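To the wet lab folks,

You asked to see what we're planning to order before we commit. Fair enough. Below is the target structure as tokens, and below that is the sequence we designed to fit it. If anything looks off to you, flag it before the synthesis order goes out.
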């Protein structure tokens, strides 16, 4: 297989058909889609929070227990956490060059995203179902 001298791809990349990155396009689209989803979800989140300004505790719980508000908050949390995790993964892969440190940072990023996600989901579900 002859290699084009003007190509930026290595011979191994040509054989594997991978190009310069493995999952960059998928991550790119996931981050763009979560970013698009976060626009209306952030507006809804801000609207819900602003509507609770000056309300007492029981009124706030009643607002958050509304199924529409709870679903919007859950979608906001899930999209935001996924968007955050992808963004941090890209930053880690681009800027941490030592392989051991990169793997440790990627693992910490994954655990942090899962932990924050579960805590936030638990809080919303607890308010919604109590």
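Sequence we intend to order:
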């Amino acid at each position: 297989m002859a290699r084009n001298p003007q190509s930026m791809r290595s011979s191994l990349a040509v054989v594997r058909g991978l190009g310069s990155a493995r999952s960059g396009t998928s991550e790119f689209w996931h981050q763009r889609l979560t970013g698009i989803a976060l626009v209306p979800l952030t507006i809804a989140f801000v609207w819900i929070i602003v509507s609770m300004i000056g309300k007492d505790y029981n009124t706030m719980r009643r607002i958050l227990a509304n199924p529409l508000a709870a679903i919007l908050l859950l979608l906001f949390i899930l999209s935001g956490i996924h968007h955050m995790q992808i963004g941090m993964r890209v930053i880690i892969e681009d800027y941490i060059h030592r392989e051991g440190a990169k793997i440790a940072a990627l693992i910490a990023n994954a655990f942090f995203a899962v932990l924050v996600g579960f805590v936030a989901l638990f809080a919303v579900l607890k308010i919604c179902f109590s």
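Structural context that might help your review: The CA atoms of residues 50 and 89 lie 32 Å apart. The chain has a mean pLDDT of 87.

Thanks,
Computational group
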